[in-house]
Write a structure and sequence with these properties.
There is one protein chain. The chain has helices at about 10-20, 55-70, and strands at about 30, 35, 40, 45-50. It is an alpha+beta fold. The strands form two sheets. Strands 1-2 form a two-stranded antiparallel sheet. It has a two-stranded antiparallel sheet with strand order 3-4. Strand 1 (about 30) and strand 2 (about 35) form a beta hairpin. It is elongated and about 50 Å long. The protein starts with 8 loop residues before the first helix and ends with a helix. The relative contact order is 0.17. The model has no long low-confidence stretch (mean pLDDT about 85). It comes from Plakobranchus ocellatus. This is Retrovirus-related pol polyprotein from type-1 retrotransposable element r2.
Length: about 70
């Protein structure tokens, strides 16, 4: 039986961040082409997008809570 290749830390980070960021899907952002967008991600970079400071703070609070739960 062959050895199983361990996941790279970058793969684990991508999986972890995807799970956490999905919690933002139904929260306010900006409309682009009729679609709500509240975050942009590339590799290990993330940008949160909101129309005002209050909505941005809500996004941050949600991410913080979810990240703390996931460890």
């Amino acid at each position: 039986m062959g050895q199983v290749s361990p996941m790279k830390s970058t793969d684990l980070f991508s999986l972890y961040s995807e799970i956490i960021m999905r919690n933002l899907e139904n929260h306010p952002g900006i409309k682009v082409g009729g679609q709500n967008i509240n975050n942009l991600r590339y590799a290990d970079d993330t940008v949160l997008i909101a129309e005002n400071k209050e909505d941005l703070q809500k996004l941050l609070n949600i991410l913080k809570k979810k990240a703390e739960r996931k460890g």
